[in-house]
Amino acid sequence: MVNKEEYRRRIILTASKIFSHYGFRKTTMDEISRALKKGKSSIYYYFSSKEEIFEAVVLHEANQLRARLTTAIKEVDSPPEKLRNYIYVRMKEFAKLSNYYNAVFDKNLDHYEFIEKIRARYDREELAILRLLVYVGNNRGVFDVEDSEYTAMAIQTMLKGMEVPLFWRKREVDINQRLEAILSLIFNGILRK
Amino acid sequence: MVNKEEYRRRIILTASKIFSHYGFRKTTMDEISRALKKGKSSIYYYFSSKEEIFEAVVLHEANQLRARLTTAIKEVDSPPEKLRNYIYVRMKEFAKLSNYYNAVFDKNLDHYEFIEKIRARYDREELAILRLLVYVGNNRGVFDVEDSEYTAMAIQTMLKGMEVPLFWRKREVDINQRLEAILSLIFNGILRK
DNA sequence: TTAAGATGGAACAAACAGGTCGGAAATTCG
DNA sequence: CGAATTTCCGACCTGTTTGTTCCATCTTAA
Fold first, then answer.
1. Tens digits of residue pLDDT in B99-113
2. What domains are there in chain A, each with its CATH number?
């Protein structure tokens, strides 16, 4: 193998699929190595533990999510549309990136420090984006809020509410309607009358 | 619990979902009991082993499959249409009943005796149905075959070919086209010219 | 040929998972 | 109500699994 980084990437992609199907706990190093057609111990040349692989996988998905959210925001110009795109894409992607999702919600993973770090980091970044969106909208006179920071936090709280598994236990159509309702709520409480 | 049978059924339904997601091996008695909100040892009051639960689950799915195939055949009258319905429904249902599917194809389950029994029984029953279909069609003068038994076996062989995982690694549309092609092949080799 | 980069077989300690057992709780019945 | 029977479960046992380490062995490039 000429390029070590390249092989790490391959491990991440392969492990990602297995993790997303069986979860962290039920995925064994043996499966990962078999999927890669390598000896189990060989994996340890690239990663020092199963945890470290999972960490890389989750980070990978987090990066994907970030990238897609960024483009979603850039696609449109007006702050309300940016916000709408952000929320929409965030919801759709969250459902797809199952490892990241599990990392954030699986109570059995609570004690892993790196999970906490990723959770915290994502929270911080998201808040920054929302704050900026609100702030810009406010400056342009489209929004009308007292404090960008706290408004952003309020929106984030609402987004977190959409993350909990119960929210998804509904039909697809219903989900879209609920999304529209949520957006409408945010906007009507935010838009200048 | 007034009715022991009723509770067994509930265990089967719950275990079925977990088995279908994680497979026989990765599903633990602990999970099953947790999903049922019962103590692990309580399950052993209803089933004497994990294997026995899986056996019941697979049998349950096999019965479902049989029931649907039966109605599918009864829905139409002419032998060619019966055959067409049979094959069509069999394909669609097979994809859904994942425990049954795994029981039939997972090489890791090869050494379980009850799996062998279920496989053998299903084979026998299917052959009987096909034989009858061919026989009746022949009698009515719609089909034209020498030996119903061997023709039925030939058709069954073809159906088995559609079961192997590779067959499904295609897009839905493609699947339908292939199905049509298979049907057309069977009929054109079978129908009186 | 040698040294550094990769690989995988074998071994191991710790965790896990299927199953048992004795008896507690709940329910039924007289 | 109380005894009998059904249902449930916590604690435990035991063989297996699994993450990880070690080290001998290949492979590659200089």
1. 666 665 565 665 667
2. 53-188 (1.10.357.10)
